[in-house]
Amino acid sequence: MSIAPAPSVTLDDSFARDLPELALDWQAETAPDPRLLVLNEPLATELGLDPAELRSPDGLRFLVGDAVPAGAHPVAQAYAGHQFGGYTPRLGDGRALLLGEFVAADGSRRDLHLKGSGRTPFARGGDGLAAVGPMLREYVVSEAMHALGIPTTRSLAVVGTGRHVHRETLLPGAVLARVAASHLRVGSFQYARATGDVDLLRRLADHAIARHWAGSGGGGAADAGLPYLAFFEAVVAAQADLVARWMLVGFVHGVMNTDNMTISGETIDYGPCAFMDAFDPATVYSSIDHSGRYAYGNQPVVAEWNLARLAEALLPLLDEDQDKAIPVAVEALGGFRPRYNATWSAGMRAKLGLPEDLDPAVAGPLVDDLLSLLARDHVDSTSFYRALASAARGDAEPARLLFLDLAGFDAWTARWRELGPDADAMDRVNPVYIPRNHLVEEALDAATAGDLDPLDRLLDAVTGPYDERPGLERYAAPAPQDFGAYRTFCGT
After folding, report:
1. Of these residues, 66, 111, 259, 289, which one is catalytic?
2. Other CB atoms within 10 A of residue 65 CB
3. Boundary (domain end) residue, out of 148, 180, 212
């Protein structure tokens, strides 16, 4: 590791300063031959970085962690977690480093984090490396999620390392540079609680409050008379909103372990993730989710379960008497379902072009009956909602042709049309383009072989998801019938 003369970057290290017990000083492995695969120039500019400098040899060394700006303090973060329901007390960044934090003029912070930068003491036998394909998957899907307006970590760059990675075969290696409001997780609090050090747990909570809610004003966690209860309530609300938004676009995270749930309410860790094709609540894409624990339809329940684990970790801060703390935590956790249902219901009314004040007694059965139709006929949900806007304009055939049960669709459509749906409003919330699984695989296979053109074309489509454009018809089409059953892998 060396001190980089360029690019001109200033990074702070408040996490390492405030919480040294959770920060292990470490450095990235040297990349033999760093080569830029993709750079997010708009994000770079937003962060105050010069894209030209990032493309330079010193810029690439910075993006893989070989050259660290003066004043930066790279660390591997410690955290625990429930993985597929089983608790592991010591996980941590096994192949990642927090380089530091960008500090904006308003005092807000954003982490710069590397993924695939080499083994750390948390690696637990792994090689600490990442292959080109999974890192580009995270780049594509996270930027698509950002374009859809869903809170997410962002991808700044993917840089090939010039090193091969051993998986089922030899694959070219890469490092992802990721940006996030923070990398604080439910697992961070589980780790702090497991130490038995209540002071550490309190400092972690104070750090999170200062990082995410200090400027929220009246009712904010830092200003509340019960700051740690208000903090927990804020995380519950943020996660309820987030998972509802996943569900509205058919996103399947694939690995909702507690170490993959952020305190900020951002989507993190795009491993075996995918967007659902045919609507089916039982959809699972992850090759390791044999029981369907993290199936599409289970995601709200899993999120609530994860938040219960956060509540357990926070009990000493809610009241010194655990018997008093538990009912307080249970009551706060009870806010998850109403918040989730409200966000989901409002989102579904918007997708159907219906007014916000529509009587729930009318909207609820209409939505339930539609979802039953979609599931029964295995309808591609993204195509359906976009085509439904044509039905609101008087032409139901594009949507109708997606169904086998034509009588059922016709009856449902008649009920829906009576409510006067707004087609233009529907087009503003129902995407034309998402990262279709067959197109993602096509782009990743080509990029692994050295051809980045399919990746560039896919990124162009999914980062402008709502505006239909000529020449992009294949990016709006469902997978061909011969695509077969789809499986994703975590990349480790």
Report:
1. 259
2. 27
3. 180
Whose tokens are 């129902």? That residue is 430
- The structural domain count of the chain equals 3
- 407 and 429 part of one domain: yes
For residues 242 and 256, what is the distance between their CA atoms, to the nearest angstrom? Answer: 13
Nearest to 41 by CA among 156, 123, 158: 156
* 205 and 333 share one domain: yes
Question: Could you give the residue ranges of the DSSP H alpha helices within 250-335?
Answer: 299-318, 322-333
Please check whether residues 11 and 146 belong to one and the same domain.
yes
| Stated length of the chain | 492
Closest of 223, 216, 189, 191 to residue 204, by C-alpha: 189
Q: DSSP string covering 12-35, please?
A: B-HHHHH-GGGEEE--PPPPSS-E
User: What percentage of the chain carries pLDDT values higher than 70?
Assistant: 96
Per-residue 3-state assignment (H helix, E strand, C coil) for 41-109: HHHHHHCCCCHHHHHCHHHHHHHCCCEECCCCCCEEECCCEEECCEEECCCCCCCEEEEEEEECCCCCE
Does residue 17 form part of some domain? Answer: yes
Residues 325 and 407 in one domain: no
Range of the domain at 397: 354-492
**Domain shared by 174 and 277, yes or no:** no
* 189 located within any domain: no
Active site residue 460: no
Distance CA 104, CA 118 (A): 29
pTM: 0.95
For residue 366, the surrounding DSSP H or E stretch is helix 360-376
Q: What is d(CA 144, CA 250) in angstroms, rounded to the nearest whole number? A: 13
Identify the sign of the CA torsion 192, 194, 196, 198. positive
Residues 164 and 206 in one domain: no
Pick from 180, 206, 230: which residue ends a domain? 180
What stretch of H or E contains 165?
strand 154-166
Q: Give pLDDT, residue 483.
A: 81
Mutual orientation of helices 299-318 and 336-351 as an angle, nearest 10°? Answer: 140
| Angle formed at CA 320 by CA 319 and CA 323, multiple of 5 degrees | 75
Measured between its terminal Cα atoms, the distance across the chain in Å is 24
Whether 397 and 324 share a structural domain? no
- Give ∠ CA 6-12-13 in degrees, rounded to 5: 125
457-490 in b/e form (b: 16+ CB < 10 A) is: bbbebbbebeeeeeebeebbebbeeeeeebebbe
Question: Is 349 within 8 Å of 358 (Cβ atoms)?
Answer: yes
Residues 378-437 pLDDT 10s: 999 999 999 999 999 999 999 999 999 999 999 999 999 999 999 999 999 999 999 999
Comparing 28-32, 212-216, 334-338, 363-367, the range with the smallest average pLDDT is 212-216
Q: How far apart are CA 122 and CA 60, in angstroms?
A: 25
Q: Can you tell me the distance from the alpha carbon of 217 to that of 221, in angstroms, rounded to the nearest whole number?
A: 9
